[in-house]
Design brief:
The complex is a heterotrimer of chains A (351), B (516) and C (371). With 351 residues, chain A is of the alpha/beta class. Chain A contains ten helices and twelve strands. Classes of the chains: A alpha/beta (351), B alpha/beta (516), C mainly alpha (371). Chain A: Belongs to the BMP lipoprotein family.
């Protein structure tokens, strides 16, 4: 008896749970008015950040800066959501759809992790304009924003090569994935073509299957400390908020330089304590791209298709705040013009 | 000191209720009762470790309330626990002053005080010896000294003789008489009636949580006292008609085991042990605990692999078999520590009935359990072995020690073992359950069971065994005939070195067993 | 007896309820401290959590968490702390995806093949910790933590373009070869707006029933539980504890290997770093604790976890700090551990008292009869 009742109970419980889904009827999307631009009087912009979100002093903050500018210029209403490391595809899709459903347009996914979910959401909300940063989504209502990070990294490499005293420079990547490999490849090439005698040391904080390397400043600090202890005196880190730890470590050693990434990290209030150790930052002007996307919708001519923000268009570049690279400006300008003209082809993969 | 109407509703089998005791100054007052009768609870109340729900404690006419042992110590009450609380790697002096450094400091003054107390009561304690070098009896004296050092005028001794051999018990009693002569009061907890009668001035008997009477040791016999304790006629372990056959059941040959301790010193635990138990024979092994008995049992059970030697059961070699196969092969096991080795305390009784026999009927069929049959059989064991429980779904932990043991005995006997290993089968078991367990062993023996009995209770050993062996430092050093030997003789053989070479006991008529 | 049984049920329910109430109260206090009104937050979570599409999503999440929880629970039942479910799950899912993507068999072979690969890989990985524990005395906690790190690195190494991974066209993410359609498991379609329930939920139920049956109704399960209750008593009863450790680690790891399959077979159909979320193994620990290693309890705990995560997204949308759910989850686990211990001790005492009372009553009636 007992056995039968227990099995039955387990079976019934699970069946019941499954059925409640249909029984309860209303979906989270039913409650709202139909999607799209129902409230056209005021532009509503939805942003879904990558893990770390606003406040990472880096990639996400760069997007946030563009958003803030759009807000100031056009008075748009803004809703910001953030990814978690425990996200599944369904979670990301839900996040985007929640935004689209509530009438936010455009909806911007910051980070390549949103590629799949934007593909799905764009299909469901054809009237909403989506934008994806760092990936390409093939849909009529999606603006795919990509950057030539290898070009800015090349310039960072040139700067590092000219500034190192001991001919040892380091690269810290947040996670060992193709996107970050682009940074490494550009940096290595920039260093090598400036001074082939310089040794470049690379360290990735986590392997490709573990995205926590983008949000772990302690790991960044430990990696940078290890490099400093080995006599490396210029460290370029492309590691999201983990890079903050690396900058902190570098600031602890006089004569060593950190090269920031994505945002102009010299100007980041959160990093003000270490600003004198930040040589320059390899800018990835997500802010420009985000601003452009919002503006296009505002102007009634939404951008779609793939837009590459490269060195020629100042989509990527090197920051000059602090004035630490003013002395090597001529070499950097020369390298930049060669890249723009196509004389230098920067590789996107290592080896 | 007077206790009036002490009641403690305590989450246990027996609560204290309406306890009335008067202890006069300068006497040895014995508190006797079955295990689980509530003696320990009462002592904890007296020592401030627990608070009574009702009732009063009066000392020298003044009512007191103890909140913790500190209060009790301040009132001159000290406790010597059954399990010693000494740090092995410190000296006697250090152990004594530990925690009461303020009294006499930790140097010369404390040493002088210790010597003074030791001389005054004839304790013979040497302050600068490491505790780890002391024997059990010496450690007990250190514990007593520790309590006196803190100014106790009333000493509570919880089962102080449980760990001692007879000669040591006598020495302890001499100490107690010295204390009494100096005007101190001793409260002595025990269930060994002979000892109680020999040392106590007054006796209070506790049964089922309440005081049922007092006795005058001068006019009371052990039997009368026991009947007061149990409330019924008392059984004895005597068993005389021989059922020994000449068919060997268990043969142990040259069993050898050595252990290397943490400091890398090799110690021989079992030293070329050989013996045979025949069908219908009870072989008793006497010895002070820690002389290899536990390891011998574990080796036979297959829990501890020996370095050398062979074990045979009913003609089959079992030396290499795992424990489960041995149990299936017919070894029943009543472990020494039932809480650690015999029961799953947090599991219900019927699951405990399965423990150790999961592969056997009625507990399972094929690879699957048969809970219904196991439950039914547990009901039967509860009935037949008089396990006092409201049901078989309660956890083993909620039963009293005696009832737990009856369940274990019932479980092991239910599988009709060929050999029963009974290690201290009646330890911590009340007199009533003790008699039942003895009956079970006797009955099984009559049906041809072989029994390996290990016990610290010499009466039990002599009463139940057909053959006796004495184990000392991992060796079987002597054998004896239970028909003729006295507990005192056995006790001195157990101390080994004291008696020198003991190939045969004095007074042994020689038919008790073959030579080693 | 009936009374005791009823009380036991009550006590069993009391612990998680107590824990949940405590967690809600503490979370409310935290919300108040941040200047937000707590009931609005809870209201939002409930409103959103009970929408039909949310329910589908919660069941899907819970399916994954349930399997991870049961994997942990198997270890817990014999006092083994398998912290390595995370690594076992990643490795299992990765190799299952790689093998599944490399071969193309009919569905009735393809899916079982994927399942077997996932279980085998997970079991082998956990088995390393088991063997280390029995042969070298290495704590399974330490071993599995280290194996987690190694598992991540192995997956990271193999998941590269040109090895077992393929770069997408934007050049930013890598994943394994997608499973052929024969490797896609059926879904329960609940309608356009509502979504699809993973077909793997059926397997999760089977796993739950199997777990209950093996532990409660087989010799092996009894041996396993007895080791958990008392290692010394189990040894004396004839259980080979060493073999039990290895076996249960293998089972725990095998189940852990299955953890990623609802996602793989029903959703992503390929392994990629951002497709398989981090921390499911650790969620499994929480869920097993919360569900008290009971197959139904773990299911409820997994659903609760799914509900909280689902609700957390909405909280952020409504302007609450999204971290609040993290606080709540942490507080729940902590409260659960405390509440269980409190209730367990109370129950044990209570039972001893009951037994004492009943026996005393029996003794009294007997006395009356004889008198």
């Amino acid at each position: 008896m007992r056995r039968v009742t227990k099995i039955a109970a387990a079976g019934i419980a699970s069946a019941a749970l499954a059925l409640t889904a249909t029984a309860c009827g209303s979906s989270s999307k039913d409650s709202d008015t139909t999607s799209g631009s129902s409230d056209s009087s005021k532009l509503k912009v939805g942003v879904a950040y990558d893990v770390g979100g606003r406040g990472d002093h880096s990639f996400n903050d760069s997007a946030a800066a563009g958003l803030d500018k759009a807000k100031a210029d056009f008075g748009v209403e803004v809703k910001e959501l953030t990814a978690k490391t425990s996200d599944t595809e369904a979670d990301r899709e839900q996040r985007l759809e929640d935004l689209a459903d509530a009438g936010y347009n455009p909806v911007i996914g910051v980070g390549f992790a949103y590629a799949e979910s934007i593909t799905a959401a764009a299909k469901k909300y054809p009237k909403t304009t989506f934008a994806i940063v760092d990936s390409v989504v093939d849909a009529k209502n999606v603006d795919s924003i990509v950057f030539t990070e290898e070009q800015s990294s090349y310039l960072a490499g040139v700067a590092a090569a000219l500034k190192t005293k001991d001919n040892k420079v380091g690269f810290i990547g947040g996670v060992d994935i193709p996107l970050i490999n682009k940074f490494e490849a550009g940096f290595r090439q920039g260093v090598a073509e400036t001074n082939p005698k310089i040794k470049v040391t690379t360290q990735y904080l986590t392997p490709g299957s573990d995205l926590s390397g983008f949000s772990d400043p302690a790991k960044g600090k430990a990696a940078a400390q290890g490099m400093l202890d080995n006599g490396i005196d210029v460290i370029y880190s492309a590691a999201g908020s983990s890079g903050n730890g690396a900058i902190e470590a570098v600031a602890g050693k006089s004569g060593a330089w950190a090269i920031g990434v994505d945002s102009d990290q010299h100007e980041q209030p959160g990093l003000a304590k270490y600003k004198d150790s930040i040589l320059t930052s390899a800018l990835k002007n997500v802010n420009v791209a985000v601003y452009d996307a919002v503006k296009s919708v505002k102007d009634g001519a939404p951008l779609t298709g793939t837009h590459a923000y490269d060195l020629a268009k100042d989509g990527v570049g090197l920051s000059t705040s602090g004035g630490f690279i003013d002395d090597i400006k001529s070499q950097l300008d020369e390298a930049k013009s060669k890249i723009v003209s196509g004389d230098i082809k920067v590789k996107t993969t290592v080896k | 000191m007077e206790l009036r109407g002490i009641t403690k509703r305590f989450p246990g089998v027996v609560a204290n209720h309406d306890i009335d005791i008067t202890v006069r100054r300068g006497t040895v007052h014995a508190l006797v009762g079955e295990n689980g009768a509530g003696k320990s609870t009462l002592m904890k109340i007296l020592y401030g470790m627990q608070k009574p729900d009702e009732g009063t404690i009066t000392i020298d006419g003044e009512q007191v309330a103890f909140h913790d042992p500190g209060d009790a110590i301040a009132r001159g009450i000290g406790m010597v626990h059954q399990h010693f609380m000494l740090a092995d790697n410190l000296t006697v002096l250090e152990n004594v002053v530990l925690g009461s450094e303020k009294l006499y400091g930790i140097g010369g003054r404390a040493r002088a005080k210790i010597n003074e107390i030791s001389d005054a009561y004839g304790l013979g304690v040497r302050p600068d010896v490491l505790v780890e070098d002391l024997g059990v009896a010496d450690r007990q004296r250190v514990e007593i000294l520790k309590v006196l050092f803190r100014g106790a005028r009333t000493l509570i001794l919880d089962e102080p003789t449980a760990v001692l051999v007879p000669q040591e018990v006598d020495a302890l009693f001499d100490n107690l008489r010295e204390l009494k002569a100096e005007g101190l009061t001793v409260i002595f907890i025990s269930h060994k009636l002979g000892e109680v009668l020999s040392v106590a001035d007054e006796i209070t008997v506790i049964r089922r949580g309440t005081t049922v009477g007092s006795a005058d040791p001068a006019t009371t016999t052990p039997k009368q006292l026991a009947e007061l304790m149990v409330g019924s006629e008392l059984p004895s372990p005597e068993t005389r008609e021989s059922t020994v056959t000449d068919v060997p059941m268990l043969t142990v040959d040259g069993l050898h085991l050595s252990e290397t301790d943490l400091e890398g010193i090799e110690r021989v635990v079992l030293d070329r042990i050989s013996f045979t138990i025949h069908k219908g024979e009870v072989l008793g092994i006497a010895g002070v605990e820690g002389n290899g008995q536990a390891e011998l049992v574990e080796a036979i059970m297959g829990i501890l692999p020996p370095d050398a030697g062979r074990i045979g059961l009913d003609g089959d070699e079992i030396t290499q078999l795992p424990t489960r196969r041995r149990r299936e092969g017919g070894i029943g096991y009543i472990p020494e520590d039932r809480h650690r080795h015999g029961l799953l305390l947090e599991a219900p009784l019927w699951e405990n009935r399965i423990l150790g026999h999961v592969t056997e009927r009625p507990n399972s069929k094929g690879g699957f359990l048969d809970p219904a049959a196991a439950r039914r059989d547990t009901e039967r064991i509860v009935r037949e072995y008089d396990v006092r429980t409201p049901g078989i779904e309660v956890t083993a932990a909620s039963l009293s020690g005696g009832n737990q043991q009856k369940l274990i005995v019932g479980r092991e006997m239910s599988h009709r073992p060929k050999l029963l290993i009974a290690a201290h089968p009646t330890r911590g078991v009340d007199v009533g359950a003790q008699a039942q367990i003895w009956d079970q062993i006797r009955e099984a023996r009559r049906e041809g069971l072989a029994v390996l009995l290990i016990s610290a209770d010499l009466d039990e050993l002599i009463g139940l065994s057909d053959t006796l062996r004495v184990m000392y430092r991992g060796r079987l050093v002597a054998d004896a005939d239970p028909a003729t030997i006295t507990p005192e003789e056995l006790g001195s053989a157990m101390t080994g070195a004291a008696a020198g070479h003991l190939e045969h006991e004095d007074g042994d008529t020689g038919h008790g067993g073959e030579d080693r | 007896m009936k009374k005791i049984d009823k009380e036991r049920v009550l006590l069993a329910i009391a612990a998680p309820v107590l824990a949940l109430v405590a967690a809600f109260v503490i979370t409310a206090l935290v919300l108040l401290a941040t200047g937000k009104e707590p009931f609005g937050a809870f209201g939002t979570m409930f409103d959103y959590g009970f929408k039909s599409d949310s329910q589908v999503e919660i069941i899907n999440k819970a399916t994954t968490y349930y399997i991870a929880g049961i994997a942990v629970a198997v270890g817990f039942r014999m006092n083994l702390f398998n912290i390595g479910v995370e690594g076992q799950y990643r490795l299992g899912a990765f190799f299952a995806a790689a093998v599944g993507g490399a071969v193309s068999l009919p569905g009735f072979l393809q899916i079982p093949l994927i399942i077997v690969v996932a279980m085998t890989v997970g079991a082998m990985w956990a088995g390393i910790a088991g063997v280390l524990k029995t042969s070298r005395g290495v704590s399974e906690v330490i071993a599995t933590i280290m194996l987690n790190a190694i598992a991540l690195s192995i997956v990271g190494y193999l998941l590269k373009d040109g090895r077992l991974g393929h770069l997408d066209e934007a050049g930013t993410s890598v994943s394994t070869t997608p499973l052929p359609s024969s490797g896609h498991l059926f879904n329960f379609d609940m309608g356009e707006d509502v979504g699809q329930i993973y077909g793997f939920v059926v397997l999760a139920v089977i796993i739950g029933v199997g777990y209950w049956f093996v532990l409660g109704r087989t010799r092996f399960g009894f041996d396993l539980r007895s080791v958990g209750l008392s290692e010394s008593a189990a040894t004396a009863s004839g259980v080979s504890v060493k073999r039990m450790v290895v076996t249960s680690m293998l089972i725990s790891g095998g189940l852990a290997g299955l953890t990623g399959l609802p996602l793989l077979l029903n959703d992503t159909h390929a392994y990629g770093a951002d497709l398989f979320p981090a921390g499911i193994g650790f969620t499994g620990i929480s869920v097993a604790l919360l569900g008290r290693n009971n197959p139904v309890g773990v299911a409820l705990a997994a659903l609760l976890w799914g509900f909280l995560e689902r609700g957390s997204g909405r909280l952020e949308f409504e302007g609450y700090d999204k971290e609040i759910v993290g606080v709540m989850q942490g507080v729940i686990v902590l409260s659960v551990v405390i509440a269980y211990e409190v209730v367990r001790r109370y129950g044990l005492k209570r039972q001893q008292q009951k037994v004492g009372e009943e026996l005393a009553a029996q003794a009294r009636t007997k006395k009356e009869v004889t008198a």
